[in-house]
Amino acid sequence: MSSVGRWSEENGDFLLVVSGTTRYAPYLTGWQEFKDHLRKVVKEQPGWADVYSSQGERRGEMQGWCRLRDREDADAAYRVYYRSKGMLVHLWETGRRNEGYRLMRCNCSTHFPEVQEGQHSHGRCGIDIGRVHQLGGKAPASTIPYTTAQYKHPYAIYPQTQTYAPIPVYPVYVIPSPVYSTSTNGMPVNVRGGAVLTEARGIFIRNLSYKCTPEDLNGLLMRTVGYPIDSQLQRDARTGAFKGVATAKFASKEAAQHAASLLNGREHLGMKLHVRMDTDTTVVGRAEPIVVNGSYRY
């Protein structure tokens, strides 16, 4: 890889930007949801994260931005989101000594037909890399180029000479911590802030061959329904023996439903699989309490 000026390999981290609609990527509804989703993918704790509206031709979509410290985590996150339906994914390597940003890889060519494979489309992706320099405090009054390893030429230079008014100071209010209870139908309820919205995003697989390995299971999923966020073979707690059942979790409810429908009744390693939606759910948001007669009703 190359960039303008000297690059400090050992002093860098990584910037991941994913763009898509909340219909297929509900984790892009807010920064907390995006960061919680990333925690299921990476091993180390993600750095700062935020969610913005896309600009230009991709207006109406949302962008999730996050810093990752580990190269292996960055590569794993790129693979997961690259394989998610309709997602535009970019991965930058960053410098901590104001060298700027350099693009490692993106999938612009799969979204924009006129872009050659492996190339980046600055004009159509709707991503403003200058925003990160402002948020991260890097070189606020300079121009910072970034390049890709494949083509070794700058795609864009972002001048950042705009000045901003002082940030107003507001009184600080302490937000009470949520207190959860359980409704009669088993749904978790935040008695201070409304109901927690959940949905099933996993599948439960029975009648697997006892010879099935984690590699066999992942190979089956990759060949049929795509890359899962997580997959687990269920083993006996006492003996450690495989019980012939497994679970797999996907990025959305729709992906899990598609997987259950496609895999149920399919033959694998000589066994006919029985697949259904898993009962475990994933928190996807929060509903405000209903106001009745001027008071909150839970």
TrEMBL record:
Which terms are listed as keywords in the entry?
RNA-binding
Q: What is the lineage of its organism?
A: Eukaryota, Fungi, Dikarya, Ascomycota, Pezizomycotina
Domain of life from the UniProt record: Eukaryota
- PROSITE patterns recorded: RRM
Name the CDD domains on file: RRM_SF
Tell me the ranges covered by the RRM domain, including all copies: 201-280
Stored InterPro entries: Nucleotide-bd_a/b_plait_sf, RBD_domain_sf, RRM_dom, RRT5_SRSF_SR
Listed GO molecular functions? mRNA binding
This chain belongs to the protein called RRM domain-containing protein
Q: Which organism is it from?
A: Clathrospora elynae
For this record, the Gene Ontology CC terms, alphabetical, are: cytoplasm; nucleus
